[in-house]
Amino acid sequence: MSSKDNFTPNAYQLLDSGHGRKLEQFGEVTLDRPCAQAVWSPQFPKLWDHAEASFSRKDGLRWRGREKLPDAWTVPINGVTLKLSTTDFGHLGVFPETRGIWDWIRHKLNEARRRRETPLRFLNLFAYSGGATLAAAQTGAECCHVDASKGMVQWASENAGLNGLGEAPIRWIIDDVNKFLLREARRGRAYDAVLLDPPSFGRGKQGELYKIEQDLLNTLENVKNVLSKRPAFVYLTSHTPGFSPIVLKNLLRQLLPEAKHECGEMLLEGAPEVYPLPSGTWSTASFD
User: Measured by CB atoms within 10 angstroms of the end CB, which terminus of the chain is less buried, N or C?
Assistant: First the structure.
């Protein structure tokens, strides 16, 4: 899905990619990080000299120039302000290829809200640092943010405060996603819109093993069991090699055959002349 946004300011852009790397700007910070799918040659070789820091997975996981960076900094991306910080795994607290999804969620929730008398309920599973949760909360939706990592849920909660959403109706849940969904179904809780970004491999709150090839079908069935009688959408994304847009679309078509289905690639994007960089896949099942 394109991340051309209608929300300002936006302080992220892809500057260049190639030779298995990507060069990105996050506010005032420019970073050089690995990207296996960037198999072409860089378009703008001289730009790479301006990177403040770089991350490598060769000979272990390590940063170069990390000492030049602040411990944390904030960046507005597609209408959501996020705290960023370098982690030992090379992550920063945002996957910018998902920023177009935030715009889509806002649009769909605002569209659905105009046709309903009560606020919509939005569920974000494997929710990371909360960009999508906060985009949904900006529309007035009642949100539930679920991740197995206590640290990431705390990070997301801090991001809510940065966006003036500290008192918004958001439930912050630290739990294994499938256990959470089973519990919600037993309690009769239902959601109008669901986003899920299952990992290729992960562990739940109590060390539960998650392998996408084995567990995704079960997760999707559990999602179906917590959908409201009048759902707006289910949005499925993946960063797992081999899980193409059509794979995701087929999964949602089988799960929700009555919905309208679309699919595509998530992209990192910059100026028009910069090659867009595929960074995952998405599919949607929409009802309204």
Answer: C
